[in-house]
Amino acid sequence: MLRLYVSLMVFCSLYLSGVCGISFASAEDVCLGCHEKKTPGIVNHWKESAHFKKQVGCADCHGSDIEAGHKREAVVDAAKCGTCHKKTFDEHSLSRHSKGLRTGQGCTRNMAATDEQKKSCSFCHAPGSTKPFDETECAMFLAQSKDMQAHGCSSCHRVEDRCDTCHTKHGTDLSLARMPGTCGTCHMGPDHAQYEMWDASSHGVIFRARGEKDGPSCVTCHMNRGSHNVSRGIATGLPEALPEMKKQERDYMVSICSGCHTSGFSARNLAGADNIEQQSRKIVEEARVLVEELYREDLLFPPPSERPSHPLFGKKFVIGPHMLYENLSLSESLFFRMKQFYYMNTVKGAFHQNPDYTHWYGNAPLKLALSELKSEAASLRRARNLKDRLDNLLLAPESPRDDTGDVRKALRELRERMLRGAISGKEYDDLKKKALDEKGL
């Protein structure tokens, strides 16, 4: 009799959860009454998920405070997911998806004080130092409108603390998270076109023809065996002060590649990409030095003093990681494209085995842009020399028969006002032009 009773209870439980689509958690869920009518798509995704099958209801993730949920005060972040998925969360916390990628300001690791955290400090800090290798403030983000920050920046960069960036919000279909197109939502475009590079490479072609068993996808190389530390094996970008870590990560990536290739072939190809990265960095460095020279020579138009304030540094000249892409001179714009687009295409194209991105989308425009920058610098310097010669001619003492004495005197006064800081360089040029036009000179 007892056995029959237990069987009936099991049958009823399976019937209610499977056939009727109702679990014990969902039967008491205060959210479902409204959301089955107002947002049925969300509820249906949840009912198809592993969470539903495990009787994980709305309140388990969102909390039971309905008002707070409606005000968007109850945020389901990665740490919340980590209460159940601890191993996955810990791996994610060690990766570059978690290291300083949240747009905005401030240190963003937000990890518990564990041994894993102590080991991971070397990702951000030099040994024994609190000074970070990379600043976590993002001037480009801060310079944008709130709408652009939300739609054009945070949609990708919230991967640090939002698992649904890859896994969707209410579903748990792993096949979606493993699709290369999911990675391509963020890893595409002129600054990091990894998806396009992979898609057009031999790896991508074989993947489409024969699937992941023969053609590696993003997760094959970067999330081996389901690891959420997507930085494993990436040696490029690690500080030179950490040679052992660089070697360790390179050896790991060679072991991944050796699943299909010989270890020697894998190591040679990765070493070749290293060399391309170093060669490309030298080109960018040459461009950086040239732009800094133009700034010191006061040949950037408009100069930083006449632009809207930089969100972090005010009216100062900025060319490093916090360089903006608005209100720049032509020279700075060329440099921005070189370091942000062409350099990245060259290097990442090489590591993703895409020759066209490495060369024609990367190396060629990188070198062409340097040529343009050099030509622009020469033109600016030639124009400055001609301007100085004209100024010297007009400001020279007038001869007794010279009828331009009044103009010369006025120009000398204007120049003195500019040198005293009473007027800007632009105002000086405008007033000088006006004075010359009035005399027909």
List segments where confidence is low: pLDDT < 50 over at least 5 consecutive residues. 1-26, 102-119
Tally of domains? 4
Sheet with the most strands, sense and barrel status: none
Distance between the termini: 115 Å
Molecular structure report:
The N and C termini lie far apart (115 Å). Helix 20 packs antiparallel against helix 21 and helix 23 (405-420) runs antiparallel to helix 24 (425-438). This protein has helices at 2-19, 24-27, 32-38, 40-47, 50-53, 58-62, 66-70, 78-82, 86-93, 115-120, 139-142, 146-157, 164-167, 174-178, 180-184, 194-199, 202-210, 218-222, 243-257, 263-296, 330-351, 355-395, 405-420, 425-438. It folds into 4 domains: 7-62, no CATH class; 75-172, no CATH class; 263-383; 396-438. It contains 24 helices and no strands. With 441 residues, it is an all-alpha fold. Helix content is 59%, strand content 0%.
Which terms would index this structure?
disordered N terminus
Strand-helix topology:
Blueprint: H1 2-19, H2 24-27, H3 32-38, H4 40-47, H5 50-53, H6 58-62, H7 66-70, H8 78-82, H9 86-93, H10 115-120, H11 139-142, H12 146-157, H13 164-167, H14 174-178, H15 180-184, H16 194-199, H17 202-210, H18 218-222, H19 243-257, H20 263-296, H21 330-351, H22 355-395, H23 405-420, H24 425-438
Question: Could you write a compact summary of the structure shown?
Answer:
The chain is an all-alpha fold and 441 residues long. The protein has helices at residues 2-19, 24-27, 32-38, 40-47, 50-53, 58-62, 66-70, 78-82, 86-93, 115-120, 139-142, 146-157, 164-167, 174-178, 180-184, 194-199, 202-210, 218-222, 243-257, 263-296, 330-351, 355-395, 405-420, 425-438. The chain has four domains: 7-62, no CATH class; 75-172, no CATH class; 263-383; 396-438.
